[in-house]
Each structure stands twice: as C-alpha cells, then as structure tokens.
Amino acid sequence: MVLVQYPIPTIMVFSVFDSFGTIDMWGFVLFSTIIGATQGIGHQRYDLDRDTTTQTGTFAVRQGHSTINRLYKIFVFLDMISMIGILVVMSIELKTVNIYGQDKLIVPLLILYLVFALIVTRSILREKKHLVDPYYVKGRNDIFNITFTLFPNFFLPFYLSCVLAIVYPVFVIFTIIFLFFTFISFPNASITRQIKVVYNTLKTSISKRRS
Question: What pTM was computed for the model?
C-alpha cells in the first residue's frame, strides 16, 4: 500500500517533467517512502487493540504492542530526518532560481523545520514511558501537529507556490486555489490558530534557553 501511495506517484511526477532517474528523484522517492511507512505503522498501531479483538492479521497484531511501539518511535525520527532530507535536496536543486538576488530560497524553511524537529525530539525523549503519537491523536493542536501535519501540508507547499508566483505571476491563481482548498481541508483548525501555536512554541523555547 505504501508503494502505491508514495514512491510510485513520486516517480510518475518526475517522469512527467522529464526528470526520471535524477538524484533528486531518488532522494524524494526514498524520503517519501519513509514518511509513508511511518504513517502506515502509526495507523496500524492506532487500530491495534481493535484489530486484536477482531483477530485481524495486520503487521502490528503479529508483532505486538512492545515491538510496534519501538518500531513506530524509530520511524517517527526517520520521518523528521526524511523531511530534512527533502528540504536539503530542494535547497540544492533550486539554487538556479534567483529572486531579488537570493538563491537560498529553501534555507529559511530548513532552519525553521530543524527548530521544530529539535523541539519534538526533546518532547519525545522526555516522555520515556509514553510514546507521543504525532499522527493519530484527534484534536491535536501542538508542535507535533505543526511538524508532522501543518508544515508538510501547508507551510512548505504554500511557500513554494508563492515562490512560483513571483517567478511566474500567472501562478498566483494556483496559490489562491491552494489556499481555498487548504481552508476547506482544515475546517476545525484555523491556520491563524496554528500560526499562533508556532509563535508561542518558539517564544517559550527561546525564553527557557535564555533562563
């Protein structure tokens, strides 16, 4: 299932743009597969008790709580490393795009994500007995939601669409359409509230470091 949802569509997109077999394509394939595997393991872990009751023979049921918890924790870290890898690849490949004399267009996003990843890592290591689930907790509105959901699904594509609109103004239409569908996708979590969470999380972390 992971292969169908992540690496194959990635290869298809690169093929459409005549970039099949390039280093960045294989980088995206690897990183997206890891992210997809993390979500797949997390989903099976989330359904583990129900699947055990119904005797559904999923991978998580066969491995048991202890093993699947350890595996999921490893993949959560690999997930963040994968996103960092994607940002690094993008920062290298997009150096040819120059806007107002700046060619390091992805570096600000990379730095921002590194800050998020460090905060998440610190939170996970603090909770030694309880595994924090970044994907399958309903109503989550914290740094985990920002790092694993909001950043890859809103911040990154919105930032790239803005860059595209600056280079090719006609793509302003695409940016507007993207924002429209994003707000539809997040009916119970406004973007402004999430941005406030980002701001307050960074503010609190910086204050603690200074003290």
Answer: 0.81
